[in-house]
Structure formats: C-alpha cells, structure tokens
Design goal:
By secondary structure, the chain is α/β, with parallel strands linked by helices. 20% of the residues lie in helices and 22% in strands. The strands form two sheets. It has a six-stranded parallel β-sheet.
C-alpha cells in the first residue's frame, strides 16, 4: 500500500476503558490493536483521539441521582446516553491500550473535556457545533481523504466518519480495525447511515 500525502489515518479512542476489563468495555475491543499497528505504517499522517473526561462529567450516570448507565436523558444540546464513568482524565482507563503504537502520532486530539457536554466525534462536540480543531489541522496539512479506525464503530467512529463526510472529506472506515458496542441494533443503523453519507466501508 503506497503512502499518500493527502490521506490521514484517524485512530479513534483505543483506550483501556474501552478494552477488555475496562469501565465501558467494547466487546473484543482489544482485537483492533494489532490490525491498527500494521495499518499505521502505511500512512504519512496518523492522528489519535482520546476520550478525556473530567470527574463528574454530564454523560456519566453517576452524575445524575437515580439514573443508571445506558439510560437516556435530555441535556442542553439534546439526547444523551448515560455511561459508566470512563476515560477520566489522568487515570489508567484513559490511557491508550499499552500495545497500541502511538510513536507515529502527528497529533493527539482529546475530546469530551468540558464537563457539561459529551463529544463522540473527532470533529465536533455533541452540540454538533463546537469544533475540536481537527478539521483545521487536517486542512492545513492538505488532507483530502480520511480513514477511520478504532472504537466504537457505532459511536465515536460513526460520528467521526459522518462529520468528516459532511465537511467534504473523502471518508473510509476499515471495519476490521473497529469493534462495536451494538446496543439496540446500533451497529446496523450506523452502517446504513454511513453508507448513505458516502462513507466507504471496507
């Protein structure tokens, strides 16, 4: 696979809390690590994203008395799934999986840093308006095509791919380098929506 200077690999949230034994374990999430490590060798630009929540984040069920993980509430920006506390800033759960090769990182984008708003996408917070700054970084580097991998297919990979397509990038998702939560048929819905948005699923 030849390197292309106008392509970027976006490695999404391959963190301990999303892997086996983690606070918000994605089934078989750790299986993506070896495939991603092989893939990064073929890209001149590799960007890693990292969920990076403060304690007491609004998306944590523990922040809402009487509510449990995976219930849904309305926040100022719309509906929000409540999650177990995960990827808390400075904890081992927020660290990248120890076997993930991050030496080639051109940039690391931390998201979900504001207590009052979640951020699934690598490009926007969940209000769908506040940018992370990744788009501008990629534009200045001349990137036209984005390949998304990581965790989870039906949440952060999905939202990142959809946003990248809306922003005018060519987008590919390498499914062998992703794993899904698949809650309430969310994987099938995510795949259909990505395909409708012109995302190339491989």
């Amino acid at each position: 696979m030849p390197m292309n200077s106008d392509q970027a690999l976006i490695v999404i949230d391959v963190q301990n809390d999303f892997c086996i034994g983690g606070a918000l374990e994605v089934p078989f999430g750790e299986e993506v690590v070896a495939n991603i490590n092989r893939l990064v060798k073929h890209y001149e630009m590799v960007v890693y994203t990292q969920d990076w929540h403060p304690k007491g984040h609004a998306s944590f069920a523990s922040s809402h008395a009487g509510l449990a993980p995976f219930e849904t509430i309305d926040l100022s920006y719309g509906k929000q799934v409540l999650w177990p506390d995960h990827c808390v800033q400075g904890t081992s759960g927020a660290d990248f999986h120890p076997d993930l090769n991050t030496d080639s990182a051109d940039a690391i984008v931390r998201k979900g840093c504001r207590r009052e708003i979640d951020s699934y996408s690598a490009f926007f917070e969940n209000d769908r308006e506040t940018p992370t700054g990744l788009e501008g970084y990629l534009r200045t580097r001349g990137i036209k095509r984005i390949v998304c991998v990581g965790l989870a297919t039906d949440y952060c990979v999905f939202y990142s791919a959809i946003d990248a397509a809306k922003l005018g990038f060519e987008v590919e998702v390498q499914e062998k380098c992703c794993r899904a939560i698949d809650m309430d048929n969310s994987l099938s819905k995510a795949r259909q929506e990505m395909q409708s948005a012109g995302v190339d699923l491989k």
